[in-house]
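On clarity, I found the account of how folds are encoded harder to follow than it need be. What matters is that the chain and its backbone geometry are given together, residue for residue. I therefore recommend that a typical entry be quoted early in the introduction. An entry of this sort, consisting of the sequence and the corresponding backbone structure tokens, reads as follows:
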Amino acid sequence: MKPLRCRRCGSDQVRRASRVGLLERLLSAGYVYPFRCEVCHRRFRALRWGEHYVRAGPDRRRHERLPVDFWTTLFLKDGERQGRVRDLSEGGATLEADLPVAAGDSLELTLKPSDSEPPITVEVAVVRSVQSGRLGLQFVRVKGGDDERLGKFLREQGGRR
């Protein structure tokens, strides 16, 4: 079967979405499933003849996270600290860092995924989870223009997997 592409933007960065309502449950019996584009966020249905998707628990993340490994600088009220980015998406990241933060705190960080590009600045990131040296961050505001560079970097990384 040919790869699935978004009907709006033509991207192949598409992932399966949860079924919503009785109609989508009935359609899935005929191999018509819901999908969401990672680039333009459009939700659509497509025929995937012969494919069977097992129901998974709800994934609250809007974007797929990709495994990465690079250093970042975090700016806290008491100064700057270093952390290691372990996975990354357009909407957040997981960091390895031993910081005096709690869930709900906000911070600023700069992401430097490559030496050839200027850093990507996340002006506001909210700490969503803290577990034994790992922080789950949600990006609230990325500096103007840097959000496009972050998306481009992630699309390039996704194609290399």
In short: The CA atoms of residues 66 and 157 lie 8 Å apart.
